[in-house]
Every structure is written in C-alpha cells, then in structure tokens.
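Subject: design request, 702 residues
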C-alpha cells in the first residue's frame, strides 16, 4: 500500500511542480519569521476557527466567495519570470525545494499522528518556511489520514482548523483541497472509500470555516463530469452539508474524542484545582498540569485559580501558594501569569455581581503576588476602585442579573415575549437605563451559547421591546469590551456578535451611526474586528434580507418562535391591504389576533396611520379597524400610543412623499384623542431643520 502511494506521489510531482491555473492568487503574507513557541501556540488556540481581521490583509470567512476567486495567470507574459510567483526563476531550484519540502512534510505528518502535538507541528512548519508550498502539507496530511483510522482523520481535521490563517494561509488551504479533489481518481485506486472519506474532509473544512462553500460549485465547473472529484463534491454537498444538523453530524463523524477542545481543557483544569484544594498535594497538581500539555493555555489555570480563591476564602492560601510554586519552578511562565491576572481584571465588573468584594480581594492578590516576586504588577492594567458610574449597586444588580437569566431562559423555552415585556415593566425602575443595558447584554450572551433558534428569538425580542437606542448601544459596548475574553470561551464570538450588531441595525434598533460611535470608543482588537465585520455585512448586496435570514427565522408562520420582525411587518402590510380592498372587518381582526404577537401591535397602528396619511380613499375604513381593535381590547392603549409615537418619528421621511404629512399627522392625533384611542396628555415634538417646537398642546379643543 505504501509503495503504491509513493508511485502515485511520483506520478503527481510533474503536474504539481507546474503552475496551477486553477489555484487562487497568492496573497503577500509574511510567514517567514517564526514566533516564540508560547506566544504562537497561545494565539493558535485563541484564534481557532475565528474570522480574520480586515486589517490582516486576509479575506474574511464571510466574504470567501468574493475575495478568493480563481485568477488566471498568463504564463506566456515575458514579465512573468517566476514559478508559482514564489521568486524561483530557476525551475531546477524550484523542483529541488519542492522535493525537499515534500520529504519534510511527510515526516512532520507521521510524527503528528504519533504524538498528537499540534504546537510541535506549528513550530516545525514555521521553521521550515517556504509558505508557498504549504498547500502540499494540506494535501499530504489529508491523503495520509484517509488511509488510516478515524482517530487520524479527526486529528488531521482538527490540525487544519487550528493552523488555519495563523500558520497556513487561506489560499494555501484552498489550493491544497483543490489538489486533493483533482487527484481523487488516483486516490480511489489505493483507497476504496476515497470518495466518501474525502467528501467528509471537504464538508468538515466548510463546517470549520476554512473552506468557502463556493468551493464546491467552482470546482465542479472545472472538473470533468465523470471524474471522482465531482463525485466527492456532490457527496459532500448532498449527503453531508444538506443533511439536518449537518454541522454536528460532520463534526462527530470521526468521534473527535481524542482531541481536546477548549471546553475539555477548562473542565480538566477545574477538576485538578478542586482535587488540589481537597488534598493539598502539589506534586499531583503539577503532574496534572504537565499532563494537560497546553503551556499556551496556562493563563486559564491562573484565572480559574484566582476565581476559586475569591469564592472559597479557606482555600485562598493554598491556591496562591500553588500558583507561586508553579511559577518558581517554571511550570507556568510569567507571561501566562500576567495574562491570567489581566483576564481577571477585565472580568472584575461581572465578577463583582456574584462576589461583591471581588475588586478589593483581587487587589490583595496582586499586592501579595508582586511582593513575593512571582507577578510583575507594573505590566497589569489599572484596577480602578470606583465603579459607581459603571454599574448599579452590586446587590441590586446581582438580584436583577439572576432575574434576567431566569426571564431569558423561560422565554427561550416558551417563546412568550409578552410575558417578558410584563416582567420587565415590573422590574424596571428609577435606574431603568442601566437595567435595560444589562438585560440586553445577558439576552445576547445567553443566546450566543445556544442554537440558531434562540439567537433568532433574541433578535425578535430585542426588536419588539423598543428600548432606547442609547441603552442598546451601551449593552453592545459592554459586550464589545469583553469580546477578547469571550473569544477564549466562544471561538466564533466575532461572527456571532457582529451578526447581532448588524441585525440590530437592520431591525432599526440601532442606527448605522451607532456603529461609528462604538468604533470610536477605546476597545479590544477583537471588539474592533466585531464592528468592522458588522459594517462589512451591512455593506454587502441584499444585506438586509441576508441578515434577516442569517439564523433561519420562523418561516411564514408567525406563531413559530423565532419569526423575524420583517416577516411580521410583511404580514401586517398584507392584512391591511386585504382589509382596505375587501372591507371584511371580522377577518382583519382575526388576522391581527393570529399574529400571536400582541407586544408588536404598535406596528399595526403605525402602518394604519401611515396609510391614512398617504391615502385619501377608504381612510374611514382604516379608522374603523383601529376603533374596533381598541374597543375590543385587541390593541391596548400602550400599543396604540407607541404606534402613534413611531409614526411621529418617521413623519420627516413621509414629508418627502406627502408634503403636508405633519398637518395630517396632527389631525390624526386629534381624532384619536376624540375617539379615545390616545390619552389627552399625548404630545409629540416636531423637528424641522434642527429646531424643535411643540406641534400641539396636550389639551386641544374637540
């Protein structure tokens, strides 16, 4: 079997050594300078499956289709004197370099399958250099794994996802899979199930966001219809990517038990700290820390040990002593210690909700560690002692935080947004602005840890609550401030948070200018990436429709939890049009009721009043609908008032089509007061060219 593989490899060398017109253009990315092992590996885990920063010069995973198009190179151009654009003007030198790279790549792959040491592979590839040949490493890794057990297949998929962007550039990953699909016919000779196995690898790469979905269609167009490569692509698309819960199915296809995720490591860290607190056995604790084999993740040990020390007063001395000795013997280096303390400082506001004295306790820990010489306090951020302006009193915020979690979890189970509105009206008081910001923050935080259904439900609820934009903006500001730390727990925080931010703009919860304001505030690198990604999503063609459908929505049935606000608005528009043309009042009321979203009835009022302002014909019919809905209790006074306020906010835009829109709106308000829809105290401020003046008094004569 091995000799056959070598023959096939020699058979392909001539083809691979020539310029590949199917490969994507090489981007000028410097990968030649190796990073120190700890820093590099530390970034590997942190950026596992992350999108790339717009500032990195690499394409975002969301924009693969546009930025990684196939580029045709004119190799007959006299100005083109290099091979593969690598700077090798001498074909002999190129062949020698490629042959040397292939030998070393094979050795690296063999050692990886024996040791499962991701960090070692990353370091060796950095030291090997020749980044332009890393497509071959991708091909060799997958082709060797295909002829082995599920363990090696899972290890190969995990390694590619981990090295993506940090060590292996996206174009090289793309090209490597291109080579694999092209050589599927040859692979099938030695590996009977090559089509199925390679299809899983392709599907897994798309699920892990290291290949763009457009890869399938583009490669199909380039390969002969009767080739094995086309079979691979079709099987990946129809058998794996089109299946229900395809992401979970693909990720679990080869088990995945032998590769620890970040969550696995955190769980083991918790266990070893708990065992150490109970037994006090430092040697055993050190042995367990070494057994983790994640030196780049030791900051998590520092972080969790400090939090546990805050929560368990009796264990403080033991845990601090463990960290001290681990640092002194070099088990945990000073960089990881500093990073662990820095992460706690970033989390101190949230920790203070659960541990009121967290700030003062942490200050004591820092002083003690600095005095004993195992922490450089000067490299830490300033730990402010005044948090009065940032949060409510800790006790009050803590109580509200617990209630928020309960409210949101119940909403995710029941889908009853009306109950959420009622609970918030009961809880919100004098400090409602900060409480609203906390609610939005925890709503999105809890949704990000769940599936698409809950994410969509969170967006719909946020759109329906009609919170002031400044409170929502404050919530996103808090989320962005903690994005760096969240990224360590949630690998796709950039994509998720950016989509929530873009969705808030599409749903008119935030204005586009709010993104600029958020960007102007000092924040983390991950936070900046979130905002830039949100802006990119909003600039895309048909962005509104795409963003509204990003998490599936609830289809056309609005009773389904997770229905988008856009779908509800569309149904309201349709029912009003049918009512105005047909005049069936009972049917219109039934449709309003069947919306199943009484907290959104202000949109019925808004669209009705706008129709009255825009049209002269049959406006009495619309007034009749509003009257019946109000008198029957279908639309409450709160929703009626909110609907009129929404119209008042959009009158300036209506004036573009209806010049006397302000006068008509005033007339509608006066009539609504006469009919009893609105309270006599209702008033709205008219804004004209920046000068605000009261449009009418609250005691107009009838």
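Subject: RE: design request

Done. Sequence follows.
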């Amino acid at each position: 079997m091995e000799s056959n593989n070598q023959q096939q490899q020699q058979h392909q060398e001539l083809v691979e050594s020539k310029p590949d017109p199917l490969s994507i253009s090489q981007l000028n990315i410097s990968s030649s300078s190796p990073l120190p092992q700890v820093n590099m590996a530390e970034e590997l885990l942190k950026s596992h499956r992350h999108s790339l920063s717009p500032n990195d010069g690499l394409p975002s995973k969301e924009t693969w289709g546009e930025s990684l198009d196939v580029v045709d190179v004119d190799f007959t151009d006299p100005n083109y004197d290099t091979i593969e654009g690598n700077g090798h003007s001498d074909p002999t030198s190129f062949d020698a370099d490629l042959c040397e790279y292939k030998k070393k790549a094979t050795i690296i792959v063999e050692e990886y399958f024996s040791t499962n040491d991701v960090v070692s592979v990353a370091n060796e590839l950095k030291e090997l250099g020749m980044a332009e040949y890393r497509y071959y490493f991708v091909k060799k890794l997958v082709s060797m794994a295909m002829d082995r057990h599920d363990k090696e297949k899972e290890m190969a998929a995990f390694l590619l996802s981990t090295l993506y962007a940090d060590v292996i550039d996206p174009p090289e990953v793309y090209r490597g899979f291109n080579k694999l699909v092209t050589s599927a016919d040859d692979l099938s000779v030695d590996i009977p199930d090559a089509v199925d196995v390679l299809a899983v690898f392709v599907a897994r790469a798309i699920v892990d966001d290291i290949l763009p979905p457009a890869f399938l269609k583009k490669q199909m167009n380039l390969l002969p219809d009767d080739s094995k490569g086309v079979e691979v692509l079709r099987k990946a698309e129809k058998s794996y990517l089109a299946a229900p819960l395809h992401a979970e199915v693909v990720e679990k296809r080869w088990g995945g038990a032998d590769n620890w995720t970040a969550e696995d490591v955190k769980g083991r860290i918790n266990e070893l700290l708990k065992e150490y607190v109970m037994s006090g056995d430092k040697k055993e604790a050190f042995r367990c820390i070494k057994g983790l084999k994640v030196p780049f993740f030791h900051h998590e040990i520092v972080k969790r040990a400090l939090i546990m020390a805050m929560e368990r007063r009796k264990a403080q001395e033991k845990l601090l002593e463990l960290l001290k000795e681990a640092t002194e013997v070099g088990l945990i280096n000073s960089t990881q210690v500093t990073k662990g303390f820095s992460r706690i400082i970033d989390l101190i506001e949230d920790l203070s909700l659960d541990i009121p004295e967290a700030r003062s306790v942490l200050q004591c820990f820092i002083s003690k560690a600095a005095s004993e010489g195992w922490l450089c306090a000067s490299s830490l951020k300033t730990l402010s002692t005044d948090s009065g302006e940032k949060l409510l009193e800790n006790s009050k915020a803590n109580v509200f935080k617990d209630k928020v979690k309960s409210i949101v979890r119940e909403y995710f189970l029941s889908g009853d947004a009306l109950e959420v509105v009622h609970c918030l009206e009961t809880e919100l008081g004098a400090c409602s602005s900060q409480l609203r910001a906390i609610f939005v923050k925890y709503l999105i935080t809890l949704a990000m840890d769940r599936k698409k259904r809950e994410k969509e439900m969170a967006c719909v609820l946020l759109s329906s609550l009609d919170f002031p934009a400044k409170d929502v903006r404050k919530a996103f500001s808090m989320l962005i401030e903690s994005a760096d730390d969240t990224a360590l727990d949630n690998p796709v925080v950039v994509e998720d948070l950016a989509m929530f931010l873009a969705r808030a703009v599409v749903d008119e919860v935030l204005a586009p200018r709010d993104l600029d304001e958020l960007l102007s505030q000092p924040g983390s690198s991950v936070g900046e990436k979130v905002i830039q990604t949100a802006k990119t999503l909003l600039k895309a063609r048909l962005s509104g429709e795409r963003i509204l459908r990003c998490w599936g929505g609830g289809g056309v049935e609005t009773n389904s939890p997770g229905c988008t606000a856009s779908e509800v608005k569309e149904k309201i528009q349709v029912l009003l049009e049918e009512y105005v043309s047909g005049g069936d009042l009972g049917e219109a009321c039934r449709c309003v009721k069947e919306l199943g979203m009484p907290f959104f009835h202000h949109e019925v009022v808004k669209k009705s009043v706008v129709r009255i302002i825009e049209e002269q014909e049959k406006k009495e019919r619309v007034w009749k609908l509003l009257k019946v809905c109000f008198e029957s209790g279908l639309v409450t006074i709160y929703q009626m008032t909110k609907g009129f306020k929404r119209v008042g906010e959009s009158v300036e835009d209506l004036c573009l089509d209806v010049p006397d829109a302000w006068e008509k709106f005033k007339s509608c308000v006066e009539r609504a007061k006469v009919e009893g829809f609105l309270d006599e105290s209702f008033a709205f401020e008219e804004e004209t060219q920046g000068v605000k003046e009261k449009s009418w008094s609250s005691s107009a004569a009838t």
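The chain has four domains: 92-252, 262-379, 393-548, 565-675.
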